[in-house]
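cache lookup: miss for this entity combination. No prior model stored, computing from scratch. Input as submitted by user K.M.:
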Amino acid sequence: MFDNFPLWPVRASTTAGSVDALYIFLVALSLFMSVGIFTMICIFALRYRRRKGLEAEQIEGSTLLELTWSAIPLVIFLFIFAWGAVIYFKERTAPRGATQIYVVAKQWMWKLQHEEGQREINELHVPVGRDVEMIMTSQDVIHSFYVPAFRIKQDVLPGRYTTLWFRPTRSGTYQLFCAEYCGT
Amino acid sequence: MATAAFSHEREHYLNKEYGIRSWLLTTDHKRIALLYLVSITFFFFIGGFLALLIRLELLTPAGDLVQADTYNKLFTMHGQIMIFFFLIPSIPAVLGNFLVPLMIGAKDLAFPRINLLSWYLYMCGGILMLHTLLTGGVDTGWTFYTPFSTAFSDTKVIEAGVAIFINGFSSILTGLNFVVTIHRMRAPGMTFSRLPLFLWSHYATSIIFLLGTPVLAITLLLVVFERAFNLGIFDPNRGGDPLLFQHLFWFYSHPAVYIMILPSMGVVSEIVPCFSRKRIFGYSFVAMASIGIAVIGFLVWAHHMFVAGMSLYAALIFSFLSYLVAVPSAIKVFNWTATMYKGSISFSTPMLYAFGFIGLFTMGGLTGLFLAALGVDVHVTDTYFVIAHFHYIMVGGAVMGYLGGMHFWWPKISGRMYPEGWGRLAALIVFIGFNLTFFPQFILGYLGMPRRYWQYPPEFQVLNVLSTAGSTILAVGYLLPMVYFLWSMRYGKIADDNPWNATGLEWRTASPPPTYNFEETPLVTWEAYEYDKMTLPAEVTLER
């Protein structure tokens, strides 16, 4: 039954692990923050619900509190920024010596050519454990090369080259999506 | 009751004149607000119907209900209608139009005739959009990405672009009217530091209307020129640059998100103090957070383009700035929560919507942190994660605020009370339906389901079925208020001038207000939200 109800995508590249790690951190942080806020709201709503003999107590605000709850989120945000940036930096910088594959996208087809000249259409076979760099362009509209199992995505534009790289860590068959809307 | 029946005969803006001319040629901001209310409600239900068709198609992995061509038009026009013809005008053009003069003690907006003109511009754009929909539609996605929109799509791109172009001027004029009105027409004593937060957020929104919308207008015009006259602006085959389009488009369309959410934050900042019987916690921080969001919001547009082919360093800068804009939003959530501390909290319908807003907006905001994180964004951008995130902000946040505001000010607008029990029920249904519709989409997105697909691999089906089920519940939740608001106009209990015992100036005139709002110009000697000086009527105090 759970074949039809996955909750986590397959992890099949070196990038996938580091993306998942930050994602899990963000999920945990979000749970902590939202549960915290919702609990406070529920406690206040119940404890100070309108009833006889209970008067609201006026409080203007507190600059100290305001500064605290501005500064702490800011520090956490900057930490997430830095973490995300490190992953992105690695994602965007292909290692030296990566095998190059040339990709031409068109409505609605991926045409891929290996260094040795061998061609494939809509499918790509690459060995596990080797760095692969895609050098991509489009013949018509914007497309986007997306393999969820590798956690990588890059738009493919007409009139210029974009690149992306990955190193598969697990053999298998994975979905390749075009993630940019390209018409019918 | 005798006095209530008597006061019903009193002359006010609704019964001063009758007939279609008195509405179509009115310059009364309150009547124009109602013209907008009827028109945006119409577009809301058209956009909602398109959304239901989308959800029904996605019930099964195969494309069976509609063909791919039709599906592309459905999501395109759902987006364009909901964003440009419902969400952007929603709170500003209806509640803002009605309340900005009332809240500052003015007789009308600064330019009443321009106000009417903006409704006519809205209608011209809207009718053209409807014509586009009925004669074939457009399939570019609401984002009009080039070169698809200018060189490949064979649908009505020019017509839809012109419709949105015209509609944009309605936004610009509304923004202009609000800015001038808030600066020039405040009653004596109504200083900026006494302005209700609803007005601060409308002021911030108006700045975005004025500075952002012209850029969208220019961008759409360039798309039309490239398509109609073969100019090479965005299409690389003609020497253009497709990324230039994305920069221009998001320069408006990201701040447009704040156009949708800021007014809603303003509504919540009115409701929470009133139903907690407390001053807002940290007035100046909440006010300045609105301005901060409007300003920083202009500097984050390219976070929509992290995988678009932008330079690595540009991506770093925009990611950093996106985290900065999250701070003022967090400040607001903390202040609303703190306002409830030691309050006297009632669970009336507007407050339930405010709770819903805070909950859904918090989740929308937190998932925004995922998308601003470069490494994670690469995986989740253009997937259902993004769809879920922006619906939490723009539907969970903005529409909850809009409905909360409609309930809060309905007694003032119509002179009647809505049925409280039905109101609470509808708020609950909307909240449940919303979460069931959109929460599964976060999971779908992380699993890698791309947006704008009419077919999908079978392993995504269970989550899609949940989402579709939720959307039908949500539809019921949205239909209910329309039904009972209409019902209450005839059968609702007659409303007092100030049924919530709220502090705003709009509550110190009759319900519904007379044509010129106040019998005499009010003199303001108090700050906003002095709830310590307002006593509750006996029946409310005794409520358990």
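stored under new cache key. The mean pLDDT of chain A is 93.
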